[in-house]
Design a protein that fits this description.
- By secondary structure, the protein is mainly beta.
- Helices cover about 15% and strands about 35% of the residues.
- The chain contains one helix and seven strands, in the order βαββββββ.
- Strands 3-2-5-4 form a four-stranded mixed sheet.
- A hairpin with a 5-residue loop joins β4 and β5.
- It is globular and about 30 Å long.
Length: about 100
């Protein structure tokens, strides 16, 4: 599956990479955060044996989730953007007053 990143999201990704190094996105499935992508530094996030890569962008950014959620996203193209707003406090963009979201 494909992860398409628009210019706003790419600008924020570039900023985060300059601060934290390589990043990845994780699509959580909690009651509150299940609809937003969470951004983590690759070096600080441990993927489990039951996590799978849902999609990747042409520039190597990956979107992961737990295998139990994979069928929910079957055959989906993900369009990532960024906007001013309040992100999940565990996501890297939180302190920048920005948030990632899918279109």
């Amino acid at each position: 599956m494909e992860l398409i990143i628009d210019d706003k999201a790419q600008d924020l990704i570039d900023t985060l990479k300059s601060l934290y190094g390589q990043i990845l996105f994780y699509q959580s499935f909690g009651c509150c955060d299940g609809s937003i992508p969470l951004c983590y530094a690759k070096k600080d996030f441990t993927l489990g044996s039951n996590d799978i890569c849902l999609a990747s962008s042409t520039n190597g950014i990956e979107l992961w989730t737990h295998q139990n959620q994979a069928d929910l996203y079957k055959d989906k193209t993900f369009h990532l953007t960024a906007e001013k707003g309040i992100a999940n406090e565990y996501s890297l963009e939180y302190e920048l007053g920005m948030c990632f979201k899918f279109l």
